[in-house]
Amino acid sequence: MPKIADRLQNLAERSSRLGKELTAGISRREVARLFDEDARTAYRALSDDTPDKVEEADDFKRVLRQVSGFFVGFALKLSPARRLLFALCLLFPILGFVPAAATIRLDRLQIDFSPFWFMLSITGLTLLLALELVDRLRVRDELDVARQLQSDLLPHRAPELPGYRIAHSYRTANEIGGDYYDFLPLADGRIVLAVGDASGHGISAGLVMAITNATLKTAVDLDPDPQAVLAHLNRVLFRTGGKRAFMTLFCGVLDPATGDFEYAGAGHPFPLLRRAAGAVEELGRGSMPLGIRKDLEVRRDHTRIEPGDLLVLYSDGIPEAAGSENGDTFGFDRLAGLLAQPETPQVVHDRILRTLDRHLGDRAINDDLTLVVLDRAPELNLPAGGAI
Question: What pTM was computed for the model?
Answer without folding.
Answer: 0.69
